[in-house]
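User: Last request for today: this protein with phosphoric acid mono(formamide)ester, please.
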Amino acid sequence: MKHFLRDDDVNARQQRYLVDLAKFLKVHRYDARPLLHATSSASATPAAPHSVAVIMEKESTRTRISFNIGITELGGNPVMVDAQSSQLARGESIEDTARVLSGYVDGIVIRTFGDDRINALAAASRVPVINALTDGFHPCQLLADIMTVDEEFGGTAGITIGYVGDAGNNMAHSYLLAGAVAGAHVRVAGPAKYQPDPTIVARAEVIAAETGGSVTVLDDPVGAVKGADVVATDTWVSMGHLDRQFRLDDLASFQVNGDLMGHAADHAIVLHCLPAHRGEEITDEVIDSPQSRVLSQAENRLHVQKALMTWLLTDHAWEVPGWDARPAFVESENNQ
Ligand code: CP
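Assistant: Here's the final one, the structure of the complex with phosphoric acid mono(formamide)ester:
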């Protein structure tokens, strides 16, 4: 059973495949319905949709809506579950939830808390599980970010991405892993108390050695963005953080503003996964500038998630009219 729980659950070729399929689906948005079970002409049974449960244990705008729309556009049936209105809120175990849902749906998308929780869900599930954000990672977001970089620069290998701010949060971890998979040079910078998990850095270094990328961890925002092609940041106060004012004070010198952008390459683009806290981690001047790609980045969530579900949920027994780029490795590596 293949799941997508972390950015390094795909290798470089699989990531490239997903970005290429997403770019195709962006152009042919309503043409492909691989989540609608096909029927043979001899069958009297009407076509039926794959159902996908989308469980939200935290707030969401983009993820919730883009999965709902994406599943529908692929011909599937989105089952949106607000955890607060389910038995999860009354303590039903995540393992029992996975076992029960596996009898109903063809895939489970979940936004939750610790990575131990999504790992337990995936271990008990008989259908693929997709991480829609955990405390540790945000891999669907990074697929969209990598796609946005690819659209801008015609590729991702050798691109320098400078991420500044809370370098210990899920976005920083996902930038390290997904950027390394993409062959990019990833620099993350945050204050000493906001540094990434060393095990994630070590894993990203191993991947980067294979892809030609690199990984650098800094405590200096200028060093992270100097000459960078991409400048990225994220909120300083993630969901669940209760020490808001302390964090704002700690991270104040890591704001993405006009002065910091002056150190990046002239052609640099700006990414932020949103929601933005304008005036905190990023200024209006930057997020509303011609360099900003935050709206493309948000839109690309829809397209990459459609590609991901097409890949994970259908055993490739699908046809996307006009898409003829399914390489043999997808068949073999998907079964590993
Ligand atoms: N970027 C992102 O995951 O947005 P939401 O929290 O609105 O889903």
